[in-house]
Write a structure and sequence with these properties.
Number of strands: 9
Number of helices: 14
Distance between the termini: 54 Å
Helix content: 40-55%
CATH topology: TIM Barrel
Strand order of the largest sheet: 8-1-9
Strand content: 5-15%
CATH superfamily: Aldolase class I
Largest sheet: 3 strands, parallel
Radius of gyration: 19 Å
Shape: globular
Order of helices and strands: HHHEEHEHEHHHHEHEHEHHEHE
């Protein structure tokens, strides 16, 4: 194992650091060490001073869920009379508004509903696809749930959803890709291996996906690294991830409400570490939804090159008492204020030009 100085030099030489070196860097390197290295990598990977963002809406088609994750403040149990499933008419209204705001995609996710067959989701996709919008939908836990209910393989489910109109898969439901953490916090949700397998199967079918991490609850630093290395290893294998989005756990209104929220300092250090370890993922996204606009602006100097989504609608984080909101104009102003050029993009990071 090298010294901290030797590890930092490896990063500057664009050499991959080992898991042991990664832990040493996080533990012994200070806030500014990690920020400097992450910014160096970000500028090397993205030499043009461009910060991208996407205009989309997060549509949660149902809040009914059998998973009952301890970190979730959004879900309703199947027997809760307040649980809802959006009608196709409601979906149509939300998508029309998104398109009026120059939106290019919707992020379509929901709870693990116990009664809806795969055909329901196929019909939903076909209905939405008539609008022409990009559907970034159904995170790995949902796809595993569909496979279990339908008796089909994950690959078969993805193929059917793709045929019905699914364009890409979001990285939700990853939380921490460690089975100890998942067994404690979300025992009914797919395992770490199952999450990775959904992404592998999607990539093998030519579908691009994103990856996320929700940190700052019951995981150890080693388990955070396990998560990052799993993402890095699959990216080595398939190259299918377009971006990585780390965001801190929001404890309010959850079973873990006693846990202290991550500070801006701990968020930025984790963001920088992600940029350093994930040397094969092109884009790292800031989390203004949880951190607010000013910390998101600072994150552009800690490894992030993407401002994420305008998030016309967001319900899950809001259920935990966090309700930051930004318009496209505000995002562009923040990016410009940081000394960068704002650029609208699509899910696969193709630039969107103004009409």
């Amino acid at each position: 194992m090298g010294s901290l100085q030797e590890i930092k030099q490896k990063v500057l030489n664009s050499e991959r650091i080992t898991e042991t070196e990664s832990l040493t860097l996080f533990r012994e390197g200070n806030f500014y060490d990690l920020g400097f290295l992450a910014d160096f990598i970000r500028r090397k990977m993205h030499p043009e001073p461009i910060v991208t963002y996407v205009i989309d809406r997060n549509i949660n088609y149902t809040d009914i869920c059998i998973s009952a994750c301890k970190f979730c403040a959004f879900y309703k149990t199947p027997e809760d009379p307040e649980g809802t499933v959006l009608s196709f008419e409601e979906l149509e209204e939300k998508i029309a508004e998104t398109k009026q705001l120059r939106g290019t995609q919707i992020l379509l996710q929901g709870g693990l509903h116990p009664d809806k067959p795969l055909e329901f989701y196929e019909e939903m996709l076909r209905f939405i696809k008539k609008t022409g919008i990009h559907i970034h939908g159904f995170s790995p836990p949902e796809i595993c749930h569909f496979a279990k209910l339908s008796g089909l393989s994950v690959a078969e489910v993805i193929a059917r959803l793709s045929k019905a109109g699914l364009d890409s898969i979001p990285g939700g439901g990853a939380e921490i890709l460690s089975d100890r953490v998942r067994g404690e916090a979300a025992p009914r949700k797919c395992s770490a291996d199952e999450w990775i397998d959904v992404m592998r199967q999607a990539h093998q079918q030519g579908m691009r996906t994103t990856a996320t991490m929700m940190f700052g609850h019951i995981e150890t630093l080693e388990e955070r690294l396990e998560h990052l290395v799993r993402i890095r290893s699959l990216q080595d294998e398939t190259g299918g991830f377009t971006a990585f989005i780390p965001w801190p756990f929001q404890p309010d209104n959850t079973a873990y409400s006693a846990i202290h929220k991550a500070t801006a300092h701990s968020y930025l250090k984790m963001l920088a570490w992600s940029r350093i370890v994930l040397d094969n993922v092109d884009n790292i996204q800031a989390s203004w939804v949880t951190q607010g606009p000013k910390i998101a602006q600072v994150s552009l100097f800690f490894g992030a090159n993407d401002f994420g989504s305008t998030m016309i609608e967001e319900n899950v984080v809001a259920a935990a008492g966090v309700s930051f909101r930004l318009t496209e104009k505000e995002i562009r102003t923040l990016v410009e204020g940081g000394g960068f050029v704002p650029q609208q993009r699509t899910m696969d990071y193709t630039f969107v030009t103004a009409d």
